Amino acid sequence: MRIGGRVWTTLLVGVVSTGVGIGGPPEETRAILKISRLAVSKTGESRYDDYGYLARDYQRSIGIGIEVRGVGKPGPGRVEWFFLARETQSDVVWCYDQGAEDVWLDPAKPVSFQKTSRELKATTSHRWGSVREAGHRPEGYVVRVIAGGQTVALVASSRNLETLARDPKRWSAVLAAGEAFQKPGRESGEQPGGPGRSELPPREDTKPATNRPPPIAPQS
Predict the structure, then answer these.
(1) Longest dimension (CA), the chain
(2) So what's the pLDDT on residue 183?
(3) d(C-alpha 105, C-alpha 203), whole Å
(4) Residue 205 · residue 123 · CB < 8 Å
(5) Which of 15, 136, 9, 120 is nearest to 65 (CA)?
(6) What whole-number distance in Å separates Cα of residue 26 and Cα of residue 72?
(7) Where are the domains of the chain?
């Protein structure tokens, strides 16, 4: 691989889907929700930093397929999706992209569509025998169906995120953190603070470097 200005794109296709059905009286509008993780796109560029060490800039996004089918009495519903991020140097999680779509929940007519998150940026650097990452990375997603003023189905990309989404207080903190992060004037690498913070179990993001390239000798 040629270093310096080299750009590449990786597309990892997922085949795992998750389905959740919520029970209830037959006269109520309910839903079965299935989510397929379609792809994780990662675009990057290799370069040498000002000290002659290897650095890589990444942009990551997540794509998902959503399928919802009504159960019981047909009626109106609303599908909401949330893409969550983690700051690479902390355990703070926040919502960096979200949306919603009104649907008709009918057992005979499932609704399907796809959504892709916006890109998040991160940089890895190889220095002093270690690999360090700064910036943000996608943590996962949460999708839920609202009908009759309540959540009738919910799917998350991990058990931790599902637990987070089902806790009203912690989930409000995640959304508040996202609003704080996206305020005008905030630097892209600055993590949100204040009351809008929610944390997942810590994850190790620093690992020993195996093939750190030697510094580039200055040209005379």
Answers:
(1) 81
(2) 62
(3) 39
(4) no
(5) 15
(6) 5
(7) 6-185
Residue the block writes with tokens 């370069």: 47
Q: What value does the mean pLDDT take over residues 24-50?
A: 78
Which structure tokens are listed for 106? 């009918």
Q: Is 148 left (phi over 0), alpha (psi -120 to 50) or beta?
A: left
Query: Which residue pairs from 98-103 have beta carbons closer than 8 angstroms and sit at least 24 positions apart in sequence?
Result: 98/178, 102/76, 102/77, 102/78, 103/68, 103/76, 103/77, 103/78, 103/79
Q: Of 68, 80, 144, 67, whose CA–CA distance to 105 is shortest?
A: 68
Distance between CA 190 and CA 136 in Å, rounded? 9
Look-up of token digits 């959504």: 115
What is the pLDDT at residue 198? 43
Structural element, H or E, at residue 140: strand 130-147
Structure tokens at 157: 């990309």
Long-range contacts, 161-166 (Cβ 8 Å, 24+): 161/84, 161/200, 164/93, 164/198, 164/200, 165/82
CB-neighbour burial class of residue 110 (10 A; exposed 0-12, middle 13-18, buried 19+): middle
| pTM summary value | 0.70
CA distance 126 to 134: 12
